[in-house]
Amino acid sequence: MAGRPLIQPLSPSRFLRDGLDWTGRTGGPAFAALLLVLGGLWALWRLGPLRFEGWTRWHEAMAALPLVVFAVPAMGHVLRRLNDMGWRGWWAWGLALPWARWALLAVLVAMPSSQRRRRTDSQWRLLGMGVAGMLALVLAGSLVWTAAPVRTQAMKPALLPGDLVLVRRGPLAVARGDVVAFRVGEETAPRFGRVIALGGERVAVEGGLPVIGGVAATRADAGFLSETFGRQGPEGVMPICGNGAVGLGAACLTRRLREVLPDGTAYDVLDAGARPLDRAEEVAVPEGFLYVLGDHRDAGGDSRLAVTVGGTGFVAVERVIGRVDMVLASSEARWPWDPRGWRPGRLGEVVR
After folding, report:
1. Which of 20, 201, 227, 320 could cross-link 197 (Cys pair, CB 3.0–4.6 Å)?
2. Is it the case that residue 121 has pLDDT exceeding 70?
3. What does the alpha-carbon distance between residue 89 and residue 262 come to, in Å, rounded to a whole number?
4. What contacts 24+ positions apart, CB below 8 Å, involve 302-307?
5. How much is the pTM?
6. In contact, 204 and 346? CB cutoff 8 Å
7. CATH topology of domain 145-217+275-346
């Protein structure tokens, strides 16, 4: 009777079926092939919006859905590969460690098969498959919702450096006053801004106030934003203070104003005093583009500046990731897991 062939043809259905039986065996070459395919899909999903012109949500879904389908079976193949090497299943938890995961994957590809008795570790295996299932759900949900870190102070007081915000990505019409996340050029980290003018409108900035179609916004005093002068968030951003140069640990005070656009949209902004960017020439926003400003008018590059000098220029609607809805977590510390910098009062805060 003919034996089973040593090398079987690549088959997504077989990989899917075998991965759901995590007590079996997967050889090194088969695992390497699976890793190559999943790595390619992951790279396509992450880099597609940056590398390909005309990348749409449909393209993103086509790259993400196979990752969702294979997330649990892929973990099953990790456990099968550990079986094939004669290792215990709890080694798979090394994939949760940022640097150890790459070493573990290299070992899983390179190690020869073993004839030693396989270990079941059924409870750990079941837990690992459950975690993989949760990650698959998170990945599927990322097609509608995603989390994004805030690294600059351009959107104070609505967003602070060190915030992790929930961005709604579902099909939606961007409206004036929305706080949106968007991509600029080849940057991988998103930027944030408030939509001030839409395509087809004319907009200028006079005395720090937006002027839309010749009608200026209005402002009313809303007190002060008080914060400690020091490094904030993972980038170590130093706040811009309206009360001048202060020492580390001193009170940093900046005027807080309630700004109301001509259509009645209202939100809070910060003003640290007279600055060059308080004035911007009137421009016509092209169709399909947005004019965005930071709520901290003295802190950042937005549509008042071109991309070449650190601004955003006009923001193409197709580069908008989505609307920012709420703060998921917040820390002013250099490392988010440092409890000394946590801001528990911001958890769940709705962004308006």
Report:
1. 201
2. no
3. 62
4. 302/154, 302/193, 303/193, 303/196, 304/205, 304/277, 304/280, 305/277, 307/184, 307/185
5. 0.70
6. no
7. Umud Fragment, subunit A (2.10.109)
